[in-house]
Structures are given as structure tokens and as C-alpha cells.
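Summary for the steering committee. The consortium agreed at its last meeting that each partner would contribute one worked example illustrating the joint modelling workflow. Our contribution is presented below. We chose a case with several input lines so that the handling of multiple components could be demonstrated. No manual editing was applied between input and output; the record is shown as generated.
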Amino acid sequence: MKYDALVVGSGIGGMESALKLGDMGYRVLVVEKEPSVGGKMILLSKVFPTLDCASCISTPKMAATIHHPNVTVLTYAEVHGIRGDGNGGYHASIRQKPKYVDEAACTGCRQCEMACTVAVPDEFNADLVSRRAAFIAFPQAVPKKAVIERAGVSPCTGACPAGIKAHGYVARVRAGQYEEAFDLVLETTPLVGSLGRACYAPCEEQCTRGQLEGPLPIRRLKRFIADRHYGRAGRTAIPRPQPNGKRVAVVGSGPAGLTAAWLLARQGYGVKIFEAAAQPGGMLRLGIPAYRLPNEVVDDDIATVTAIGVEIAVNTRVQDVARLKAEGFDAVLLATGTHRAVRLRVPGEDLDGVRSALAFLADVKLGHAVNLAGKRVLVIGGGNVAMDAARTARRLGAGSVELASLETREQMPAHDWEVEEALAEGITLRNGWGVHRLGGDGRVRSAELKACTAVFDAAGRFAPRYDEGKRTTLACDAVIVAAGMSADTEAFGLPTNGNRTLKADAGTLQTAAPYVFAAGDVVTGPTMITTAVGQGRRAAFMIDRFLQGLALDPSLLEAPLPVVDQAAVLRRQRVYDRRVPLAPGHAMSAPPTGFAETETTMTEEEAHLASARCLDCGVCSECHACVDACPAGAIHLDMRGRDVEVDVNAVVLATGFTLFPADAKPEYGYGRFRNVITGMQMDRLLAPTRPFNAVVRPGDGKVPDRIAYVMCTGSRDAQVGNPLCSRICCMYSIKHNQLIMGALPLADVTVHYMDIRAVGKGYDEFYQQAKDMGARFIKGRVAGITEKKDGNLVLRYEDIEGDGGIVEAEYDLVVLAVGVQPNPGVARLFADGSLALDDYAWVGEADEDLDPGRTNLPGVFVAGTASGAKDIPDSILHAGAAVAQAAAHIERSRAAAAPARAAAEPRVQVTA
Amino acid sequence: MSPAIRDTREIIRDEQVMRAPILEALAAGPRTIPEIAQALGKPTHEVVFWVMGLRKYGWVSEIKEVGDDGYFRYQAVPRQS
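What follows is the complete predicted structure of the assembly.
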């Protein structure tokens, strides 16, 4: 794209520049990093010395800037680099940040903001109050459109293989919205209760709070919302979607199958699940012991699925996929899991008393009689299934349970916590042993083990090596083998991998037969429940697109943002509370007494305390409260940013200033004493759109009686490296004085100053007027401030005009008249470092007396306070000077490029 | 007054969990910031953040007249559940 001029920044200097250039007929692009134009001026209460309303003056200019026919404005966008094009012009790279809101649809109603569950400091109110992650910058914002602040995907959410918005439901719990939290998980999977108990919680491993005192108990929060939902009498019925006329067969009712069935049924598909076992649930039902996942919870989750019309046919093994197609199903999903046990292939494996862990766990879970009372049980394996089998055997009254694994304790694939719990329940580990043979007289009586010297080969493949000379024999009455699981896929007639898993495209999950998709462990091999859920979700998405005739594009399932940088998250705060993590809700015992759950559900208070520890890493939690609340359907959390490249003839830098960080003067106590505030904070307190209901102290809400101003905070101060006068502090403080005396007629206002600089038309009169109204002015720099117990503040200063000596004076509220500083980002706009700054790091002007607005770079101009401290009228004048030079430069460029055309080319003239 | 000031971001983040206790404290009638702080056992400056945040989003409002003690009183705003 080509513009005559690029204006960077849309404060009063930037707006003035853009409007003037636009009025001259030039095509102008304005880039503003905030969601609204207006800069700092729009945030002020009034302007000096006229006491005109800042909003009343700013808003017409803001609206004119946005609507000017020659001006294009990109808000919430940042210039990443400007470089010369070699022909006297410039090329700019701009990043348009995603707003996640369709501006054309957004009506500015703030319903998203009211519903949002994430509170952050409101920078547009100088951090005096909160705003929301979904927000409209301020009431007079132009454009008055919402923006969702997203720093990235929160690490917990990003770690979930299922794609569950973990941060989102944590935020919902924190806000006390338990049903909404449950519904949010339902957007991904119906297995809220099952995952709340049996998930291995990769989210918690990535929780940023884990780098402080420990991660949030995210899984247990999910259990809390599930238990609360399922425990409620008279649950709200889930509405059945309108049928879309198409049918999908799902083979297998484990996590992948149930998830896919649920998501497809919610879109109107007629879904029927075919399950080979007598009860639905797959591994949830058959593989996970009741002390971790009771059948009642699985039943509750499955009832959610059937409640919207999904049929489940049990005891129905599907072996002919084509027949399903013939029966009228438009697509088929194979999600049959890995229910075939891997054999040890050692002598004695077929003896009585030797069985697979899968069959053993299924028998126990289904209530079949299994007698291990008093028996010596040996479990073979080092994974989670082996742990489940060992702990189940313990609960059945086994006299002893030993577990032999090839791996060392550290290498065991079982989760650490599961091993710890097994040990706590009295299970003995024998690490580094493999089975040589099983012995017995028809029934197993012993196991001869051989030492394992290595489990994996150099390439990391499973290839155990043994020390055949090192053996040991264990006496046993029962052996449970948990040596692995494999898929049972021969009957489908579809291509398989070497391990019998089905071949399916990793992104689309489509098999060799286009209408057949496959998901879960039958594709991936044995994994976690959440991974299978994620596969089910992906399959549902792809089947839907397949049946709609749309392209199967895996990238559509990718998050629009990367996971947020955790170090950056932790840098947001200087200090952190130590918030003690919730104690594990486990009741361990050795030996365990039965199949009662080992973990309790949280109380509501515990859930609040736990969720309050969330750091809101991604800022927006993706809780979807805004999506639910928006009456216009304008929120699109999958929106992506875009890069914009433009060529321009001239650049106007109107990047403004930053305020001096008041805590850099620690003797004044800002940041430690709550009743010490900055001039900008007082401006906000005095503004019509103020953060509080009145001018009250931030420390306790009291209306202040005695208010002090400390001038030259951070300016004219060599100690902080800024010898310059900030030019505006005297006058804005005097403005405050007058406004305070109007708002609080009984308040005393005292100004501690070095000297008053009231240079400008009507400025000195304004100063005299404040004195006449009763403001006291005391000459002398304040040495320090201390805080009393009641929040009052004691200022210590030398009385150089009165009786002399060191004086202490007490006030209710102290306002630091902070100075201004250069915007540090402006030089970085030019990657080659070619933009010259002055001695104080403001944008340098070639000759600020005779040639204001011109920088060292031909075609690059500076407007307003980017080149130094100025009040509003001077900023406007300076912008005018910069624009006049920019216009001349553009004309010269045009003439040089095409003399004849430049003379003839009409410009769009705008008249007032 | 505030020997251990927490980070502003941390205080503000707590607004969501403090909403219910604050509204509970206001159930019996309007209260000043120090009165709410005493009821919650929390520092007054943190309560200012929370009450002003709740005010901004329509959960509480102020009684227009300031008390003789120099404090406004805040009340819960009835809302449709």
C-alpha cells in the first residue's frame, strides 16, 4: 500500500498532523498502538489555563481523525520498522494486533466487558482501578469498540492435548460461575467428571505458578465443578440440537469416541456409538480403578452424551465398516482403543493364576468375582496400568503385592505420584528385573526373574538387555501382567502400522477410506485420556468438514496465538504473595481398605482459594464469557493479527512522552504509601470519567482535607538524570489546585515548589488566581515523606522563605507532580539506528530554533512532545510546523518522481 | 498503614474472588471502606481497589452524601440473577 505520509502516534500531535495533511489532500496513514486514538490528552480532566473540558476539545478531533476521507487509522497496531526505500521515501512494517472483535459488528455496548472474568489494572485510569481483559479503553474511546487483551495462550491451556480451556474454567470458578465453568469444558468434551478425577493433568506441569510456590490444582478444580454440577438437583436439561439429516457411526465408546460423538451430536448429526463391551466407557469404565474413577462418574458423563440424542449400542462388535456405510451412516469414526494385552512370551505364561492387567482391572471394575485374599501377587510392568493393577490387588486383600519392572525407579513410565501412592499403600517395588519364566504345577507358584541391564537401545527404542547370570526367584500365587496394550484392528481391513494401530493422517485423522476416520489410542497407541479426547475433538471437527464438503485443513484447529512466555508473565509483578498451595486431597492408607475414592472433592472455599492463585498468564482466559454475552456475536477468539507493509513519502513521528516513574524517587514513598499519588492519577480523580466516585484517598477512601503537591518530581533533578524542566507540571498542578478547591471547598491545598514557571498566555494570571482562591505555595524542595499509621503523610522540607529551618507538615494526600520523559521506543522504529536523538534522548531536531519539526533524516519529521516537553497549544503548533515541512517534502518527492504528473495530479481538498 | 503492600496487579486480580464477600458485607446495609475492610479483615487500600472496581462494573454504588467522618458509604446494587 502507498500513502503520502505515515503518522506514528495519535495523541494531540499525531491527530493534528494527520488532520492537517489530510486537509491538504495527502493520503495519510495513522498508526496507534492503543485501541483508541487520543493519546494522553483525552485522559485529562481539564486543560490549563482555560479550564476547558479536555474531552470536549479532544473528542471532535478524535472523531475527525477517524472519519477524515484522506486519513486511514490503524488502532491497536504497532510500527515494527521503518527503513528508507532508496528513492527518498520510506517503507514501514506494521503489525495489526488482533482485537478478537469484529469492529463492524461491535456496538460498543460493553456487555463483554461486564461479563469478563479477568481483572487487570486499568492503565487508562493510571492503575487506580481495574479494567477487564475484554474492554473498551475509556468511555470516549474512538473507535468505541471492544478489544480483548491476549498476551498468548495460557500455558495450562496450551499444554492440554484435549484443547480444554483450563485457564478459562479456572477463571470461571474464581468468579463463582461453576455451571459456566462446567459448560466451558463441555465445549470440548463431555468427560468433565472423568477428567476431573483421572486426568494426569499436563496443565499443572506447565502452570506458571509452579515456578513460585506450586501449581494450581487445575484437575481438582475440574472435579469440583463436575461434582457440583452432577450433585445438583434438577440439572438444566441440555437442549437437543436441530438434526441436520446426516448420520455418523462411532465405533468405540472410550474418551475419543464419546468426545467425538458429543461434539458431532451438538452440531445436529445423528450419532450412534457401537461398543463391543457390555457397558460403555472404554478404558474409563474398564481400565481405571474405582478408587480413582467410580463408575457413577463415568455414568454421569455418558448421560450427558445420551441426553442430546446419541445412541449407544453395547455388546456390538463392529467388524465390517462398509456395512455401516450401507446402513446409511455418512461417516464412520473408529475409536476402538487398545484393548489387546501384550504377552510376555515367556515359559509359564499360560499357567492358571497368570492374567493380563487389562482383564483383571475390567473384571474388578465390572464387579466380577476376583479372589486374591491373602495371596502373594506379583505384578509385571512399570507403567500406570501396572500401578493400577497392584493397588487394585492390594484392595482385594492380597497378602503381599510386589511389582517387578525392567526400569529403575527413575525410569519407570508410571507417574511419580502414582508410584509414591503405591509405595504408601505397602506395595514393594523390584526395579531392574525382567521375567525369565513363570513356574508352577498347572498353577503359577513362582517367577524367576533376571536382571535387566538396559531397557532401551541407543536410538531410544525398547530393546531390553539382561544379565543372564543374575537371577532371583519369587514365590507367588498370582501374576498380573501389564506389559503393554495393542490395538485390535485386523477386522477393519484398513492399512495399519507395525504395531497394529490404524494408519490415519495425523492432521485430519482420515484413513485410506475417505469416509472413515480413526482417533484415539487405536491410532496413537496407548496414551493419556486427554490425548484421546483431543483426538476425538479433532476427528469431530474433520468429520464435520468432510460431510460439509469443506477442505480438511488441520491448521484451522491450531491456536491463533503461541503460548505466552512464562518469564514475561512473572515480570509483570515486582513481588508475589506467597499463597500456600492446597494440600493434596488424598487419604492414603496401608493397606487400603476398599475402593472408596482416595481423593476428596474441594470445598467451595478451597476452590476459591485455589483459583485465586491463577496468574492469568494469557490475560484473556478464553472463558468465553464475552462470547456468551455479546448480543452482536462480534467476538472471535480465533482472529489472527496481520502484517501491513506500506510505502510512504514522509514520516511524522508523534510518539509523545512517558511519565516519570514516581517510584524512582523512593524518598517520596510512591508505591509504598497508598496516599501518595501522581499528577496523572489526580487528573483521573478529577475527570468526569474518574475511577472513583469522588476525590478520595486510595488508601482508605477518605475525602482528603489537606492535600500537598510536590513539584519537580523527576524533572530538574540531576539525581534521576533529568536536568530539564518538564514545562507542564507547574501548570497542571495549579489547574488541579483550582479544580480541587471547586470539588472540595473545605480542603487546604499546599504546593511545595522550586519556582513556578508560568510562561504562556494567561498562565501567570492562572497562577495568581489559584493563590487568590487559597492555594498555599511554599518554596523549597521536599526532602522526604513518611507515613503515619492512619495513612497521613508527613513532608519534611526546609522553609527557605519563612522562618527558616527544617519543617515537618502533615497531609492527608500527597500529589507528586511528575515530569515527562522521552518515549524510549521511538529510536527503535528505525532498525539501522539512523534517527538522531538529542542529548536527553528526545527526537533530535536539526535546528529547533529555525527549523522545528525536521529530524536528521530527510522526509522524517517530529511533531509534538516526541521532541521535548510541551504543553497542548505548543504541541499543536509544533505539529503544524512539522506538517508544513512534511508537505513540502512530499511535493518535492512527487516532483522528482514524475514532474509532469505532480503538476497535473489533483489532490482531494477538504474544506471546513 | 500499609507495611506490606502487595503488587497492584495481584490485588486487582483478587477482585473476582472478593466480590461475593464484599456484597455479603453490604447485605445488611451501606458501609464505608474502613467498615468493609474490618468486616473482611483486609487492608483498606485493597478494599478501595475492589469496591471501586465493583462500582465501575455496576455491582455497588455510593450514597451521595459523604459522612461527617469524611467517608462515603457504599451499597450493593440490586441485580437480576
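Chain B has a mean pLDDT of 93. The beta strands of chain B are 60-62, 74-76.
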